[in-house]
Amino acid sequence: MEEKNKEEKLPEEKEKRNVYFELIDKLVLVALLLFVVSVGSFVYYRLEYKLYFANTSYQYDTTIIDTPVTGEFRTSVEYDKKYVNDNVQTESDALNLIINESEEQKKKCPNNNNLEVEKRIQSKFKVAAVNLCELDPTYAKEIEKVMDHIYKEYPGIEGYMSNLTLMNSNNSNNGTLASFNYFFLFSTASRSRGYPWVIKNQIILNSAYLLDPNLPITIKNSSRRVGNDTSWFPANANRASIVAHEFGHYLSFVSLNKNLNIQERFLIKKMNYSNYNKMVTAYKNGTWAKGITDEAYENYNSKHPGRYENEYEFRASISQYAVAIDGRGNFIYDETIAEAFHDCYVNGDKAADASREIVKVLKERLK
Ligand SMILES: [Zn+2]
């Protein structure tokens, strides 16, 4: 009886075992699929992460030609330190990290005569951290005046800049007077996770030039016309106005943030990265800036057809630096905007038509 039962049960068991095998096959397939997907996304994430780390900061430099750095004038401020910090969760954590680091830098400043100016700039214009340690106090006050003027003329631009700081020169910034440095990766969570990131957007002032008492002469020579050519910088450029140039970059950057309705300032979470990166890319590759100069040229040309043969001539009427090219030979359109702003700042109604037309469009985009 038993054997018979066994025999009778056999096909059933076989069927059951087949079902089990099929199920196991399916499970293995699903597991494999999951494995491939997770390895893939891990590799993708690491690549994206590494890609970013390979180029963690972008900047537009204001350079001056034929003036080598002496290395004589140095600052105690270190603007480019980076941190790993797991405790940053909110925008205010990010701000505190930036502020605390700046306060540490201030403690290292041997004899800071600019503490009051730094504090005023921080509170009036919502710049998180200002480090002007060794700068001539008169010059520091001139910079404050530049900012008074700009922030009054363009309300609502506060809070997009984390730092205004001195920097030490090295070979890579040979010739650089100052820079607008944005998307600088200041802090990440532990390396395996990465996010959230704390980024800095900062105006950095090269101590090699800005602490040099000869700076006014150097700039004067660079804004002098030779023959019929425009000068390197707009006419009447001075040591305060070269800082205004950097604010031209800042205004362009803020206008893009406003137009794309970017909410992030200094804290970038993983889920917000791609949105923020889209904005940074449009700024970095110059599409935003070119849009502004194109629109200004069209506006001008419709009022004064043929006054300039083409957009290049229109831009070149501002200064030689307004048509600067990058290492690959492409125009840096954001320099056109910064120089137009620089020209209007220093020359007002007497600025080049192109400068005034460009600043008009920029102002419109800041509303
Ligand atoms: Zn510039």
What does this structure look like?
This protein has 367 residues and is an alpha/beta fold. It has one domain (55-365). Helices cover 53% and strands 11% of the residues. The protein contains 12 helices and 7 strands. Strands 1, 2, 3, 4, 5, 6 and 7 form a 7-stranded mixed β-sheet that branches. β3, α4 (137-153) and β4 form a beta-alpha-beta unit. α3 (115-125) runs parallel beside α4. The longest helix is centred in the N-terminal third of the chain and has 53 residues, at 2-54. The radius of gyration is 28 Å and the shape is globular. The model is unreliable at 1-8 and 47-55 (pLDDT under 50). Zinc ion is lined by residues 60, 62, 245, 249, 335, 338.
Alpha-carbon distance between the two ends: 94 Å
Residues in β-strands, percent: 5-15%
Q: How large is the count of helical segments?
A: 12
Main sheet properties: 7 strands, mixed
Helix content: 40-55%
> Ligands bound here?
zinc ion
Mean pLDDT: 89
Low-confidence stretches: 1-8, 47-55
Supply the number of structural domains. 1
Radius of gyration: 28 Å
Shape: globular
Instruction: State the secondary-structure class.
Output: alpha/beta
Number of β-strand runs: 7
Succession of helices and strands: HEEHHEHEEEHHHEHHHHH
